[in-house]
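User: Please predict the structure of the protein below. I'd like the answer in structure-token form so I can feed it into my own downstream comparison script.

Assistant: Understood. Taking the following sequence of 754 residues as input:
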Amino acid sequence: MKKTNNATSGFLSQLPKNIFSGFVVSLIALPLGLGLALASEAPPISGVIASVVGGIIVSIFGGSKVTITGPGNGLVVVLLGAITTLANGDLYQGYIFTLAAIICSGALMIIIGQLRLGILSDFFPSSAIQGMLAAIGISIFAKQFHVMLANTSIKGDTVSLLTDIPHSISLLFKPEYSAIAIAALVGVLSLLIMFFYGKIRNKYFQLVPAPMWIVLIAVGLSYYYEFFSSAPYPIGDSLLVQIPNDVFSNFPTPDFSLILDFKFIGVVIAITLISSIESLLSIKAVDKLDPLKRRSNINKDLTALGIASIVSGFIGGLNVVTVIARSSVNVNNGGTNRTSNFFHSVFLILFVVLFQDQLKRIPLTALAAILVYTGYKLAAPRNLKIVAKIGKEQLIIFFATIIATITTNLITGILIGILTTIIIHFILNKSVLFFVRNLFKPNVLMFKEGFNDTYFVSVKNFSSFLNYSRLKRKLDTIPENQDAIIDFSLCDFVDYTVQESLLGYQETFKRKGGSFEITGLDIHGTSSEHPLAIRSLIPFSKKIKIGAKSNLTKRQKDLQNIANDFSWQYDPKKGYDVSGLHDFVFFKTKKINYLNNSIYDSKSIFRISDTEFSEGEFIARTLVRTTIMTIKLKTEVPKFTLDKEGLLEFIYKFSGFKDILISGHPDFSKRFFLLGEKPEKIKLFFTDELVLFLESNPYYHIECNGSSLLVMRKERLASIKEIKALLDYGTRLEKVISSIQYHELLLKSPKIKS
């Protein structure tokens, strides 16, 4: 009961924040809703209807906390194509056909959500998605730039619209087009406001979003001409927003007569595909922004978006998706739960009811300017630079998707992007069979290590967008306040999409108090110097000349930082001088291939390295990578091997070795298995201080070859957290051993022959 009361009081205390945040979001949603509808050739109010319905229904049935819903940028191209082609140019008939398609799409999204198919979003390559978004941005820009300049009559595909931009600009300088000059000027000034709004640092000015400033100025201009100027308002009715007086009555009736038509079915699939992708990408992005770091129920959200789209379609609204920009505004203004989405809808209803006259005064050119800026942001040149830095192959995928989307349609575009990615992966690996042979094989092994409760995940063969869902299913079961290690040592190929997705896990685990570390990628070649570039053990990587420290993985950079903190040296390169390691029992029967990622002090007393070695031969040959620490001792001490009591004891008993018992320390003798060729000297060396140190610290496998120590934990690469612990353990162990006056103890024990 007390818990319920606390939840209620917490909800009520947060209500003012969510009301305010909902109000701010509605200031952006209103002009954007009108603009997106106009860009789709739908009635302006249809965009507002989608925002209202989405806010109410998704806030009740959705599975996310701080997302905002409404019409999305990504669907402008699809809806525009549907409205203009389904009825062969009859825009109103095309609109009611499209409403039917929106309703069918909503039903499909409900099915997707109920079947828990939200995971399908993981099967889209990141560069292809970025290319698709850029293509959408280019299409919006191409269409709305003409509208911003008051040229609403121009038609054509994206390419022709882009090439006609100089023509629309030239019209403004012709005397016969002077009537549209003021409207075009409003559009250009609106675009300038969008670009320079962020540079104004006045906190009171920033309380009103840029799109609402544009609306206020445009409406204010209308009132100026009405009350203070003798000249007539220079912007004609055809360039103003048209809203029916009876907004909440006489809703259009969707027309399902084309439901079996292939063109109609294509529209439904396109709307569903883009709605799902845009929503899933937005939900993932907003989860990262959530101050309370909650994870959304994606499938529940898809179901709610489907219900909202059906309701919106039946009353004349566009389809409903989760939108990133408005959701970001919600978080930045203190929104903490779904009520902010609900209140943003309430305020939109109030705006439409109370300010219908003012909405009709908004020039289409002002709304088009907002969309021109939106299109520019989606296809900004800096996005191209970001993709180019990741790798040339990503640039090919990016451009292939853009060109295919612009010249055909969104579904074909994303499919071309996926196909291009697959072909490039085949080319880079010089093998189609490599992927075909391993695509359906289980490639992820996960277990929880008993000694430190760390979740260890090993990935083998290849990891790309094609099979990432297997890895994701395992990762989603790990509590985010625990430690996880993802090892790619056995993986021949890791693509950019997988690495980008894993970044999200790293951030989430860090926020929740856990750790998420990736190991095994530092032995792979890369396609560029970018930290998320494709990594491969396949021969293509050998041709790439990259500096030794130019493309370090995150783990390698963390190792570099550890070395800097201790004023030590770090060397990521492979070293093949491993002669000293063969003196240790552990490596007697193993073939050591190389050491890399070495951290060492100036005197080379301490050295931590990743080590690759193999055991067995032919079909029984096993390749292992592990992290070890070696410590040079100041004096000669007895040779010994120390490990946790258990399996090692069982094996060595059959080999004729006996556990050396330390007198006066029965607990130590039970917990540890100690062996060596000279038991009496070993017993003398294991003083009370050394035994106490070993008993009061975590277990490590320790060997001594007389002049050096070998310390290791597991036959796998250690995480950064484990390396720090190993470093701390090793330096303290060396101090304890250095304090042992072994030779004096030896002299005092004449019964022990030297």
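That's the full token string. Confidence is low (pLDDT under 50) at residues 540-548.
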